[in-house]
Amino acid sequence: MKKITIGEAARRSGVKVPTVRYYESIGLLPAPSRSEGNQRAFEPADISRLAFIRHARELGFEIEAIRTLLTLQDDPHQPCASADAIAKARLVEVEQRIRSLMALKAELETMVEGCGHGRVGQCRVIEVLADHGQCTHSHH
């Protein structure tokens, strides 16, 4: 089977070359074999692992959660309670972030609605940004 260069591994997995090296350095990706010229030589399984890591990062999972998920993936016969717990914790974080963003959205809408399109001296946007106490929502 033909080995895959780091550039090709990056292209196939959607992960940038420096990130591939980083994941290797922190142990998320096992050190690949090396060619006679000491270049990394990746296997198809490495590409799949990189794609898994990229997707998990896109979903906002932290490195340690991904490390745990990879360990679980490496032993597919174990119960999935740990994976479920990690996903549930991430869901709670996302829900908190959504609440915060909704409060931010409401605050921005209030600021924009309160703007009289007059002069900056009477601009609600400037007033609220200058004095957080004027915000209608404290969770943003």
Low-confidence stretches: none
* Element order: H for helix, E for strand: HHEEHHHH
The percent range for strand residues is under 5%
CATH T-level fold name of the domain at 1-62 = Multidrug-efflux Transporter Regulator, Chain: A, Domain 2
Which bin fits the share of residues in helices? Answer: 55-70%
Q: Distance between termini?
A: 53 Å
Structural class label: mainly alpha
Overall mean confidence score, pLDDT: 86
Main-sheet strand order equals: 1-2
Rg result: 23 Å
Number of helices: 6
Rough outline: elongated
Which CATH class of the domain at 1-62 is shown? Mainly Alpha
Sheet bearing the most strands, described?
2 strands, antiparallel
CATH architecture classification of the domain at 1-62: Orthogonal Bundle
* DSSP E strands, number: 2
Protein name: DNA-binding transcriptional regulator, MerR family
GO molecular function, one term: DNA binding
Organism: Rhizobium aethiopicum
Keywords: DNA-binding, Transcription, Transcription regulation
